From TrEMBL:
One family name in Pfam for this protein: TPR_MalT
Domain of life: Bacteria
Name this protein carries in UniProt: MalT-like TPR region domain-containing protein
All copies of domain MalT-like TPR region, residue ranges: 6-156
Organism in which the protein naturally occurs: Reticulibacter mediterranei
Amino acid sequence: MPLPRATLALTQGRIDEALHMLHALDDIIATGKIPLSIRAYADTQRAHLLLRGGKLEEALRWVHECRMRGDDQFNEQLDREQFFQQMTLAQVVITQAHSTQDPYGLTAVLKLLERWCHFSKQRGFNGLLIETLALKAMAFEEGGNIQQALATLKQA
């Protein structure tokens, strides 16, 4: 499967190779043989890899295609796929705000991240909490609120 190999290639700094493997994944997805649940995860992983590879426009395409928004509600059961999707959404919106110097979308993402912080604290999921707080600090920084960003990092 190209996705794990693409992830490994990106981790090793071989961005072009990782992106080439993502194109191979497109061919497999086009056959229609991949179940929807796996395809949704693969699409999220692809957006994550594209973002890490500096392909913001392509990652934004994923946001529009999956129709996810920062103010979407989430399942109160721990759904790692949903967490990964929503954290990837937050990363794309934060990166877009940085790229365009336009904080549009950060308010909804901050609300989403706050809900995940509350969820993680209630259940003692410290790893999820730290990841969420780090993204929240980045969102505050992109919105120009450095003091709130620093205070959020202290919580992590």
